[in-house]
Amino acid sequence: MVKVGILDCHTTEFTKETDKDIVNLACESAIPILRNNPLENDIESVIISSCSEQQYLGPIVSESLGIKPKNAFKLDNLCNSGTNSITIAYSLISSGICESALVIGVEKTPSPGSVLKWDITRGSFRNPIYWASLFAKSHMKRYKTTREQIAMVAVNNRKNASSNPKALFRDLIKIEDVLKSRLISYPLRLFDCSYSCNGASAILLASENLVKKTADQPLWIKGIGQSTQSASFSKIASNLASLESTKNASRQAFHMSKLKPKDIDIIELHDAFTILQILALEDMGFVEKGKGGYFIERNQDTGFINPRGGILGCGHAIGATGIAQTVEVIEQLKGLAGERQISNCNNGIVHNLSAAGTSANILIIGKD
Amino acid sequence: MVKVGILDCHTTEFTKETDKDIVNLACESAIPILRNNPLENDIESVIISSCSEQQYLGPIVSESLGIKPKNAFKLDNLCNSGTNSITIAYSLISSGICESALVIGVEKTPSPGSVLKWDITRGSFRNPIYWASLFAKSHMKRYKTTREQIAMVAVNNRKNASSNPKALFRDLIKIEDVLKSRLISYPLRLFDCSYSCNGASAILLASENLVKKTADQPLWIKGIGQSTQSASFSKIASNLASLESTKNASRQAFHMSKLKPKDIDIIELHDAFTILQILALEDMGFVEKGKGGYFIERNQDTGFINPRGGILGCGHAIGATGIAQTVEVIEQLKGLAGERQISNCNNGIVHNLSAAGTSANILIIGKD
């Protein structure tokens, strides 16, 4: 099997407003990569991760970038689209079908991915906040997790975002600010929620052969985990304090990488709502089940968790989020994270989930 | 590298009207496969090939089918979506990320993929008929291809469709019928055009290990070719009598398979318009450039080309078409094609193209 490594990456600023169309946004994230691109031949695959309804987006972005890949297509799987697309890039390269793949995540508001309108098992409660509030209630009841502990997730991630020039929300907040913000669905409030925004992020992956030729300090995709439990909330409602899809995906990724949670130096996890950070830390095995809230409370300086500011701090450009999280891991591993650099970074993990955690994806990336 | 084989396949009837939604249509094609499915474990990947704007279609179809794959997502690349998706399934299995993959192509009218509304280089001529008519005019002028030769493609494919119970148009037509049908864009007429319709088609692929365990007569994906030249018509307009993307993809697929055109016993090629069949036969190397029209005229019994009836005979369920073409090749190779069975079938080829042939995909499938 061909090993798959990373050549370059870039993320645009995440914004509330943009005057760019979706093609321009996608190109904005890829152009710096193409400028540095050390490949002699054309990039062989262009994968667009997006909930956008724009047809033929792969070839349109490829033509706009001036490249003629073998394949170019759009992949959609809501919040998992980014990590899904990286998994496909890995497969195309590892199987020898392509030597290189440019994965571009891009989203322009209003995104059709921000409401779960297909899931009639939710009744009229189709906005993701409704299931997030059930997770929060369940965790608080079962494990005595406090409202303050959950609020601390937002405080930490906003703090991390404050040193990320690409993040949407760079102002510091306090626990009281979260608890005083507008109640949306008990017990969750405005500052517990991410904001659907515009943005793009891109990564150029390549075969071992190409990576060794061009990169001084190669990074490799070491582990991949994926799990689809269902599409509807009713099917996962039997235990709302834990996410089976995250547990499965995590188990697979650690197994494939031969690493353990203690080997991971940076964690990029899916915090579209504060409570999800607590579930993810537990379900990926970083914290004992039920202790996530207490862990957050005790470790107020959690700079190694969502150092870019998480989805809460950066904004949620749905198709771009998984790519931007992976870019953060890459930049941390390469020592390019500036003010928010974590010391001694050798391995990082990226966690994504879609639609009430009905599916999840995990990537583990590391040095040689 | 893991070899990738085929376990089972099924196509629904292609129809003008349907009372099913897109999820039901997708399931209709997959349920017969799941009934026969000899796998001990769950199918590990579900790829939905479709232009549909329905979000989270992969997990929704998976849940509806009662399976919990590792990954489940939607891939969109217009008319190439089907063969693109099979290429991704191949990569996932060959790289060892998944052991099995169910690829489902599905489309419900009106499909957003039937008008090329993004391509402003076409001016107001955004319906695919306009570029097809330019191809026809160019080929007629440069190679003295006759209007009758082009019409013969429709006559042949409708004849093949007459013995395919899944085809939309099963009535025989004559050259005169084509030439008397309504003029749409000179020189092409109504019967030169395919019809955008409803339909679904599915294939279950698996690793060599699983295929050898379960299949008496294994079929393998032997060759894959892919080429994206551009997204806009203006970029390919310098030579309208040949399609660079088809030539590139064909060269790659034959190289990978170590086969030559003379080794191919059944050809499924993209005939959304009659003229495309002539271009494809030439650009894939089955007929000398410029001789496609004369080849069709001399070989009126071309049952080995588009034996299911082509897109002209079957209808064009955009995301499903590439899968249905591949299903035809599989059934022919397995000797399951009934009335339209071609004798001594060992290797078959599938050709797809998108949006004025700006991109193309080729698959070669064969016996051990």
Structure characteristics:
nine-stranded mixed sheet; 19% strand; two-stranded antiparallel sheet; 368 residues; alpha/beta; homodimer; 37% helix
Describe this protein's structure.
Two copies of one chain form a homodimer. Chain A is of the alpha/beta class and 368 residues long. Chain A has twelve helices and eleven strands. In chain A, the strands form two sheets. A nine-stranded mixed sheet of chain A has the order 3-2-4-7-1-8-11-10-9, sandwiched between helices. Chain A has a two-stranded antiparallel sheet with strand order 5-6. In chain A, helix 1 crosses helix 2, helix 5 (147-161) packs across helix 9 (274-283) and helix 5 packs across helix 10. The longest helix of chain A has 17 residues, at 318-334. Chain A starts with a strand and ends with a strand. The model of chain A has no long low-confidence stretch (mean pLDDT 94). Chains A and B meet through helix 2, strand 3, helix 3 and strand 8 of A and helix 2, strand 3, helix 3 and strand 8 of B.
Shape of chain A: globular
- The quaternary structure here is homodimer
Rg of Cα set of chain A: 19 Å
Which class do the helix and strand fractions of chain A yield? alpha/beta
Global mean pLDDT of chain A? 94
Distance between the termini of chain A: 16 Å
User: What is the largest interface, and how many residues per chain?
Assistant: A-B, 56 and 56 residues
Q: Helix count of chain A?
A: 12
Q: For the report, how would you describe the main beta sheet of chain A? A: 9 strands, mixed
Low-pLDDT regions of chain A: none
